[in-house]
Amino acid sequence: MVIEANDAGSTSPADAAERDDRARVSSREALRFLTRAGRVLSASLQPDQTLQGLMRLAIPRVACFAAIDLLCDDGSLERLAHAHIDDARDPLLEKAEPFRPEEEGLDLIAQALHSRKPILIEDTSRSWEGDAATHQQVSDLGGRSIIIVPLAVHGRILGVITLGSTRTDRHYDRQDLSLAEELARTAALALDNARLYQRAEHAIAARDEVLAIVSHDLRNPVNRVRMAAELMLERDDVPETERMAGIVIRAADEMNRLIGDLLDVSRIEAGRLSIECAPVDVALLLDRIDESYAAAAIEKTLRWSVNRPSTRIGIEADEARMLQALGNLIGNAIKFTPEGGEVSVSVEGFTDRVHIVVSDTGPGMTTEQLAHVFDRFWQARQGDRAGAGLGLAIARGIVEAHGGTLEMKSEPGTGTRAIMELPCARGCG
Prior knowledge:
The protein is of the alpha+beta class.
């Protein structure tokens, strides 16, 4: 806390009584302001609206300018609301320099966030404990007295609120600091409630998305089951009945796969994906991949190749899960590679980690698409419902559960490379 105390002189009984009267009036005004602020903050669960309303309420009752800055997930600062009594200076408040509070900086807001304590500067013209750039910004705003208070709730720092006075006859004191701290507590609670509400909304949206996926993707195999069963009842032809039974079995398998994918996504997001690791030979793993997917690639007239390592490489892995992850990558590559293209699986150089690479000559992806490629239910081709959009999310979850990483590299027109990096077992190679 930075405090510059006012000079104290001797006071008469009359002066003391007058000061006490002013204090009582000030306390009543502060209480009225906090009551109004509480109403503004509880009027909506949209932070932008409520905080900007709070700024308008604060000016000019308790400040000549005010701002609220929130911490982002990456540690940078976002100015969410601001106001200045002088409209010509209000645009200056829009400029909020990003910073990382874990770094040792001299910026006053950084100091407040780092120390988790409020800062009071009673008179900016008499002393300054911040950096020159911040001093210049405060001067540009006309600031003569400053209060900065962290927004804290449940032990977490959400951001800061800044109050400033440009008046020569009003310098903030400890009573103003107490008001600012109470205002910060109220604002932090409102922000936390808004964030909880937004999370609930996102959870509901995700649930609705799951229900939409399930209702759409399960309806197709269910309809095939029904149609095949109806035809089986109408026919006495044994070969035809066997063909219809095959349709039923395949449709049931498709439904089970979708249900399994939904369960896997839920387990991965909850951190409860079950894996049972044992020594796995990478060459034998690729043998099983070759057996499982060569026919599908050839059926689509794709060039298919599996390049096994020249030396023995072992990994500690759940073989079934690794086959699932690789299968999702290969299935995706086969699906999006046009006829006449190529899909390959190879093992690249390794020391203590092995790289298994699935490459294709498909259409490739843009940088924007790559940013979302591992999102659940996301598909590069909007409206393409050939799958639920869970395969890549599951593949990455499986790889990360093994202590590895999964990366996609691609550019439009150049195909895509999925690079699975896994730690080698001891003594491999």
